[in-house]
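Reading a protein record of the kind used here takes only a little practice. The record below shows the convention in full:
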Amino acid sequence: MVQLLFEKVRVTTGIPYLDALTQGGFIKGTTNLIIGPAGAGKTICGLHFLLDGAHRNENGLLVAMQEPPWAIRRDASNFSFYDHNFFVEPENVIMLDFTPSGWELWDPDSLTYAEESEMMIEAEGVPYDETSLPTFLHKVFYHISQVVEEKKIERIVIDPLAAFRFYDYGNDFGFLRKLTTGFLSNIAALNVTTLAISELSSSNSQSLFGEEYIADSIFHLDMLSVRGELIRILRISKMRGTNHSTKTLRYQITSDGVTFLEDEDE
């Protein structure tokens, strides 16, 4: 008798129709990627994921890297699934502000073990200072790991990975990919189900960060203009250990968040 080494416990996506197409959602502890252009609804998908977890008494963490937490909460309040109570004491959804204006508020003296950190990756011409990508990722990972341990976090959303390009990586794209994959590998080692958000102009574009290769699943969002009408589509291009749908699915953004037209037809 063959003994399975890993039990595939599922973590809901927060969107019931997607759960039905993916054998119940993400595999627990995996790193998952949602890719798409601006306006496709990537952050909304992340909020579905976190707030559904909160309803299940699973604490979540949103790592904001581009849009500040107050703006995310403001926009989220327009949706029926939003519940402000999850964002106040005792917080079921924690928000860390690592936007360009917010992350400077963190105490730099909290990183007393910098020289021993696995995130200490150096490249020629890239200083380990406040402007460098290694410094930024070191601080982000340190605070994520602290919150995961203290708050018993079970779900993480990182929004977006594209913010990495705002920091100094010496214009070395190989180094940028090394940093990104190293960061996501360390996040994966926390054994928390993670949804990372990435930005691409279209589903045929290639990311600068190499996150597609380390992700356990990839959800592509895209927007098309058909006869003057904006059409939103989703496809699942990769989902390890899952018999997932291979169809191109049409969805829309309503007051209920992300809803699928196929779901309404059934």
